[in-house]
Amino acid sequence: MTQRHLARRMEDEARRSPATVAALVGSLLLAIAAPQAGMAALTATTAGSMQASINYTRSNEKEADRFGIATLARAEFDVNDMPRFFGRLADEYRYASKPPPMLLTHPLPEDRITDTRERAQAYPPLRVQPSISYHLARARIVARHAGIKSDAAMDWFKRTARKAPPKIQNSFEYGKALVYLDTNQLDKAEAILDKLLKHDRNNNFYLDAASDLYIAKKQPEKSVKLMESALKVKPNNAVITINYANALLESDKTDEAIKVLQRFTHDRPKDTNGWHLLSEANIKLGNSAEDLAARAELMALNAQWDKSIQFYSQASQLAELGSLKQARYDARIDQLLVARERFMALQ
Questions:
Q1: How far apart are CA 303 and CA 287, in angstroms?
Q2: CB of 264 within 8 A of CB of 245?
Q3: Which of 164, 210, 229, 295 is buried deepest, with most CB atoms within 10 A?
Q4: Integer Cα distance of 147 and 116 in angstroms
Q5: What is the 3-state secondary structure (H, E, C) of 8-61?
Q6: pTM reported for the whole predicted model
Q7: What's the half-sphere exposure (Cβ side, CA atoms, 13 Å) at 4?
Q8: pLDDT of residue 132
Q9: What digits encode the pLDDT tens for the residues 119-131?
Q10: How far apart are alpha carbons 77 and 70 in whole angstroms?
Q11: End-to-end alpha carbon distance in the chain
């Protein structure tokens, strides 16, 4: 977008159009006197116009690649990732009968890949330092979301840790703690998490796991204290706040949990965790209308507009007639009707 390729192409075509039209008219006039020569001139004129357009597009692609590499360098990414990505993309679709739409309009000839590789080599090599946050997130995925058994996950952590640099060793310990936690080996999980929290007491990954641990050990009060302490350092942090609300719920401090969750869902209306917990909290208090409202928001986030409107309608019927709560439900129904209309118009 920074190079205004579309605008510049339109300007270029506007400049070339008079000459192209004149050449086409001349070719047609020539065809009257000498049909074969006229058709040859007409073909040459059309081909020349198309080739000029192709050359302009290729020039734009090279310019975009140059700016792309410069942007990667300024953002402190490895510029060699661009030619590597182009190469993998070309290899994947080399023998495909029909390339994806992107490659139909932006082909990857060898000279484009070579050009980006040469440009990347002009930059000094970048040494990217390992990110502990990235490796903690990866450990969480391996332990809980990779679809492998706990034994296999534990084996992966042990094997990978042997050849990993010291800076990211704690990520493998964190992964082991999650496996122990999920397999109910709570004492082993606690021993690891205690060490990790001593090393970095404000790390969200460790705090989240410790909160789950105390709740699993039927000690939710410990989780409440831990989260309260963490919130003093990181007020309004999403991970800590949602764990705090969950710990309050587990400690039967439902009213306090609802206050926290009402603020949380107001600040982060697209976070499904907040609405799930708010629904659960209102169920514990027997507040059916607010439970329905929370579930309605979950339906809306999944574009299930009819179900969302239905839940809010039921909540409105349960609310006191003419109350502020009923007015809030009805106003939200109006908003959802508009949202549904806009959504359907896009289909």
A1: 25
A2: yes
A3: 210
A4: 38
A5: HHHHHHHHHHHHHHHHHHHHHHHHHHCHHHHHHHHHHHHHHHHHHHHHHHHHHH
A6: 0.70
A7: 5
A8: 93
A9: 888 888 877 777 8
A10: 10
A11: 27
